[in-house]
Each structure stands twice: as C-alpha cells, then as structure tokens.
C-alpha cells in the first residue's frame, strides 16, 4: 500500500486553468485499458484525500454523475470552509496532514491512499515525508497559467514512462517518501 498523488497535468505543469476549467484535459483521447489509466488505478485505492477547490469542482460536476458522489472509498477534504457532504463517506479536516494520513491509511484497509490534489496539498504530504509516488498523465497542451501541479522543489526518481494515446504517463518515486 502506498500514498500516491495521481493526476492529469498540462505539459507546463498545471492541474487546471485559473478558473478551474478542466475541459483541456477531459476531452483528450485515452485508452481506458491502457497504461496508468484511471480505471485500473482507482481499483487499488482504499481512501482519498483532496483540497477544497478540488472538492468544490466535484460538487459542481455532480449533475454529470447523476447527483451521486463518484467515489465509494472514504474521502477526506482539507478545508477551512463549510461544505455540504453528499455522501457519508466524505469527512472534513484542517491543519496538518499527518493525522489525516493516519486515518486515511487505516481506512484504506491495505489499499492505496490517493492524494487527488491540488498541488500544494500533495506538497504538504511530500513535506511530511508521507508521499510515496506521483503518477502524472501529461496532456498535449500548455496552459501558461493555472493551479500548479507541485509548487515545491521535490526530488523524484522516474520509475516508469508510457504513452496512452494523447498522454505521456510518468510514474515517479518521491525521494523522501515513506508514507507506506
Ligand atoms: N488535472 C487533474 O487531474 C486535477 C486533479 C486534482 C485537482 N484538479 C483541479 O485543480 C484545481 C486545484 O485547486 P487548488 O490548487 O486550489 O488546490 P486544492 O488542494 O484543491 O484546494 C486548495 C484549498 O484547500 C484548502 N486546504 C489545503 N490544504 C489545507 C489544510 N492543510 N488545511 C485546511 N485547508 C486546506 C484551502 O482552502 P480553504 O482554506 O479555503 O478551505 C486551500 O486554498 C481544482 O480546480 C481542481 O478541480 C485537477
């Protein structure tokens, strides 16, 4: 079991445009059965952790999933805001990621903890030595500005690289990892 930051990115390292648009990402061609694809990844995930903007994006897009919260796994949202919880599986926390990680790891029952994003939250896990791997699918576009993939100096080891149709997929170990 590992703690993994798994995400799509523009070539120039942005997760979303400044106004949180992801159309540049979700419209690309990807093979659902191909390397490092979401479907295969998420089957091994036992718990999720995300920041407030990522959660807000998911809330805003609930109509696209028929109003249903899209994850069966327990999910922690790091925030100072008051949010609705569309599912009993969502809980809220703030401050240090250490306690959140401990709880998520326990809830994951031997499966991976997925750090969904954003980039600073992934950086908080890396800073605490709790991030094991980063998996990125790079879309063939540069955005020029937006929400950054990882706004920290972070030493990585390239473990794997593959093409999945429109995407360059890369898997890295975080040099200071050890989240288990
Ligand atoms: N390309 C992809 O595959 C992908 C993946 C993930 C996300 N995204 C998108 O990328 C964007 C990311 O937005 P973002 O950069 O703003 O990151 P974010 O992590 O989603 O949200 C950041 C906010 O989370 C809260 N937060 C973070 N750490 C916290 C902590 N330790 N304690 C309490 N609150 C904490 C803070 O908000 P408050 O203090 O206001 O609560 C902070 O401003 C979103 O649009 C998202 O939809 C894209």
Give the arrangement of secondary structure elements.
Blueprint: E1 3-10, E2 14-16, H1 23-26, H2 38-43, E3 45-51, H3 52-60, E4 75-78, E5 90-93, H4 97-107, E6 112-117, H5 119-127, E7 133-139, E8 147-148, E9 156-164, E10 167-174
Parallel strand pairs: 1-6, 1-7, 3-4, 3-6, 4-5
Antiparallel strand pairs: 2-8, 7-10, 9-10
This protein binds NADP nicotinamide-adenine-dinucleotide phosphate (NAP).
NADP nicotinamide-adenine-dinucleotide phosphate is lined by residues 7-9, 15-16, 20, 22, 25, 50-54, 57, 78-81, 94-95, 97, 116-121, 124, 147.
Pfam family, one: RibD_C
GO molecular function: 5-amino-6-(5-phosphoribosylamino)uracil reductase activity
Organism: Nocardioides jejuensis
Task: Provide tags for this entry.
RibDG_C; eight-stranded mixed beta sheet; Riboflavin_Biosynth_HTPR; two-stranded antiparallel ribbon; Dihydrofolate Reductase, subunit A; Dihydrofolate reductase; binds NADP nicotinamide-adenine-dinucleotide phosphate; alpha/beta; 180 residues; 5 helices; 10 strands; DHFR-like_dom_sf; 5-amino-6-(5-phosphoribosylamino)uracil reductase activity
